[in-house]
Amino acid sequence: WIDVGQPSVFWISGFFFTHAFLTGGLQNFARKYTVAIDTVTFDFEVMKEKDFSSPPEDGVYVRGMFMEGAQFSIDDMQIAESTPKVLFAAMPIMWFKPFEQSKLPVYDHYRCPVYRTSARRGTLSTTGHSTNFVLHIKLPSDRPESHWIKRGVACLLELDD
Questions:
Q1: E strand residue ranges, 1-158
Q2: Can you say whether the dihedral through the CA atoms of 89, 50, 106, 129 is positive or negative?
Q3: Cβ-count burial of 124 within 10 angstroms (0-12 exposed, 13-18 middle, 19+ buried)?
Q4: Which residues neighbour 151 within 8 Å (Cβ) at sequence distance 6 or greater?
Q5: Distance of CA 142 to the CA centre of its chain
Q6: Own/partner pairs for 32-40, CB < 8 Å, 24+ apart?
Q7: pLDDT in tens, 87-131
Q8: Looking at residues 57-62, what average pLDDT do you find?
Q9: Predicted pLDDT at 129
Q10: What percent of the chain has a predicted confidence (pLDDT) above 70?
């Protein structure tokens, strides 16, 4: 980073302590706009593009997530039923966009949990964070959250095999 600058897209699965990376993204925004960090949160945008030559003005582009129980439709720009016999679908690049909580956009979405592994369980570490759960991401959906919850839809940072 010293020689060539921040990467355009981060491989989120490669971070040992993902929470620190995400907090850093929020801190950069809070410092830039002189707002309290506890008033800042992420909104999420799935990107149609597959490559970026520069990072976003605010936030970070991330890659390396997989969706279990559903897939993301680039054509419809929302969650869709999974393809038969396909257990995991690669997620497109996502933009983690920092916003002040009071200015967060409102839209129909599924609050999708993100886990490091498919185990979907973990213990609290000494930092107070789960060893497996990372965060919830908002993904556009034209169906109620209960539809996706019943299917066990979640995003994973790594697959079992």
A1: 9-11, 40-46, 60-63, 66-68, 71-73, 78-80, 88-90, 94-100, 109-115, 133-140, 154-156
A2: positive
A3: exposed
A4: 69, 70
A5: 19
A6: 32/58, 35/100, 39/100, 39/101, 39/102, 40/98, 40/99, 40/100, 40/101
A7: 999 999 999 999 999 999 999 999 999 999 888 776 666 666 677
A8: 96
A9: 64
A10: 94
The rounded percent of the chain whose pLDDT value lies above 90 is 80
Question: Both tokens of residue 11?
Answer: 């491989």
Across 108-148, the runs of DSSP E, i.e. the strands, are 109-115, 133-140
Residue 61 tokens read as 């582009």
Rounded CA separation 156/91 (Å): 10
Contact 78, 53 (CB under 8 A): no
- DSSP state for residue 128 in the 8-state scheme: S
Contact status, residue 44 vs residue 96, Cβ threshold 8 Å: yes
